[in-house]
Give the backbone structure.
Amino acid sequence: MDVKFKKKKAKVAQADCVACGSCVKVCPKGAIKVYKGLYAQVDEALCIGCGRCAAECPAAIIEMEEAVL
Ligand code: SF4
Ligand code: SF4
């Protein structure tokens, strides 16, 4: 049976990221990292869509998007 599940995943507007690292600290899965000190990047395979990073980001540039797995 071909069943697809929709799940929320964090998505960073990387052009506006100030690489503060706040999102990294609150992620319970280690799914978000600051890449080369430049911007945050989410590993979708690890993200459980809890939304903590989005709530913590001082620049409010993380959105929770539907992703079909
Ligand atoms: S939504 Fe949750 S699991 Fe996903 S990157 Fe943000 S804090 Fe981590
Ligand atoms: S909390 Fe927001 S501004 Fe800070 S590193 Fe994460 S995405 Fe970038």
In short: The first strand starts at residue 6 and ends at 12.
